[in-house]
Amino acid sequence: MTLFWISTVALVVVACLMLAIPLRSKKANIDAQLRDDLNKALYKDRLSELAIEDDEGLVENQQDLVSDLKQSLLDDIPKQEKQAQSHVSPMAVFIPSAILIVGLSYGMYVTFGATDKVKNWQEVSANLPELSKKLMAGSAEPMTEDEMQDLTLALRTRLHYQPDDSTGWLLLGRIALANRDVTTATDAMENAYRLEPSNTDVQLGFAQALMMSPDEMDQNRARGLLTGLIKEDYVDLRVFSLLAFDAFEREDFAGAARYWGIMQRLIGPDDSRYEMLTRSIESAEARLGETSKKMGQISDNAVAVSITVSPEMAANPTSFLIVSAHTADGAPMPVAAARYPVGTFPRTVVLDDKDSMMEGRKLSDLDGLMIRARIDSDGNVSTREGDWYGESQPGKLGDTIEVNINQQY
């Protein structure tokens, strides 16, 4: 605040100096002097002319003409004196003008400068350590909405001046996650991850933010981060929770139940969350049963594909599962195809007419078909190097066809 007032005083002083310089160096008004010099020159020239005219006998009363000429020369003297008397001192102009500059400058700042908001911003910024401790402590009394807004403002201010503070970015990202502000959360967590890519808390926060994104690539990146965290010596329960909810959203109910089961084993039956996890597992298993039942009632215009994988295959969590239906002779061009997140195995998917790829030719038009399944590791269907794949025996619509992914290109 002191720096601000010093700066404003300096600016006002500069403005006053800019006013004083032209007043101090103002040129003297020499119009009167120039007029006097001109009149004297004209007077002398006229006297010379009168002398010549008198010698030539052209002038009868030379003295009268000289008297008139002198009188005309003296006519300007009262005006000059009057002008001298009306001269204004530079200080008489400078002092009121300087007062006006100071009054207008600070008056307009008080009126339009939002001094109350600036003061509140400075108080909030100074209160950042206390607000941060309250948030991180997780006290019984939760922070109010106003306190969260103050903390966000203080963090943004600090990060503006200290952009390499990974802890600040992590804290800002967590606040944004609590407020469901996906854009701010993702940007803040990405900055924290850029500064500390090996920090497990940062990785988890970044994965959580990416998981909220509607973009499929962001979600795949989040799964990759979470899968990497599973391999650590200590795994935060939130990692399994995120993986479980993600699997449930993708209708991978077997995977969701498995992750929730791991959480149960980690916390033990005495934990208050144990029963909640039990209900979640039951819900996933019920949905899995419904899906299996639907698979057993496949329409005559669709085909169920039961997919298993070789024990040697290790799929990257960012990979995709591509399932395609071909004519029974194994023609390379698929009649229908679908792409899914890699998920967990074994799993079952269903292809029908909505997955048809060629106009005028539907999956339901086939008398017989075979299924190919491939784990696409790089997201580019035109490249196959390193991908795992498998294909089925010929089958018919309405059947459940089994495919084992056990070969690698």
UniProtKB/TrEMBL annotation:
Keyword Nucleotide-binding part of the UniProt annotation: no
Keywords for this protein: Cytochrome c-type biogenesis, Membrane, Repeat, TPR repeat, Transmembrane, Transmembrane helix
Transmembrane regions listed in the UniProt entry: 6-23, 88-109
TPR repeats: 166-199
Gene Ontology biological-process entries: cytochrome complex assembly
Cytochrome c-type biogenesis protein H TPR domain boundaries: 117-274
Cellular compartment(s): Cell envelope
Domain Cytochrome c-type biogenesis protein H Ig-like: 304-405
NCBIfam families according to UniProt: cytochro_ccmI
Protein name in the entry: C-type cytochrome biogenesis protein CcmI
Organism (species): Vibrio qingdaonensis
